[in-house]
């Protein structure tokens, strides 16, 4: 087995395990074992928006000046929100 990677016409990168004698074209045509992450389109993006809003409010991040002053935990809010939904997606895979 060998691992191949490619980028499709829409710019998405893919990875698949194929037999040693197979070609990249074989993988691109659906042969082999796909090694892609789950489709993030199935994330409930409305829930992400709601959760991010609530995290920003909870942390007091209500305007750019708060972020610019260095007192915000913007990264924390972003990571906390997205991580929760991505972990749920991975659990369902």
Give a quick rundown of the structure.
This protein has 93 residues and is an alpha+beta fold.
How would you sum up this structure, described in words?
- Helices cover 46% and strands 15% of the residues.
- The protein has 93 residues and is α+β, with helices and mostly antiparallel strands.
- It has 2 domains: 2-34, no CATH class; 40-92.
- The chain has a 3-stranded antiparallel sheet.
- Strand 1 (2-7) and strand 2 form a beta hairpin.
- It is elongated, with a radius of gyration of 19 Å.
- It starts with a strand and ends with a helix.
Set out the fold topology:
Layout: E1 2-7, E2 13-18, H1 24-28, E3 33-34, H2 45-58, H3 64-68, H4 74-92
Helix pairs in contact: 2-4
- Unreliably modeled segments: none
Overall structural class, as computed from helix and strand content, comes to: alpha+beta
How many angstroms does the end-to-end distance come to? 23 Å
Count of helical regions: 4
**Tally of individual domains:** 2
Strands of the widest sheet, in order across it, are 1-2-3
SS elements, strand count: 3
Q: Estimate percent helicity.
A: 40-55%
* Overall shape: elongated
Rounded Rg: 19 Å
Mean pLDDT: 94
* Share of residues in strands: 15-25%
The largest β sheet comes out as:
3 strands, antiparallel
Order of helices and strands: EEHEHHH
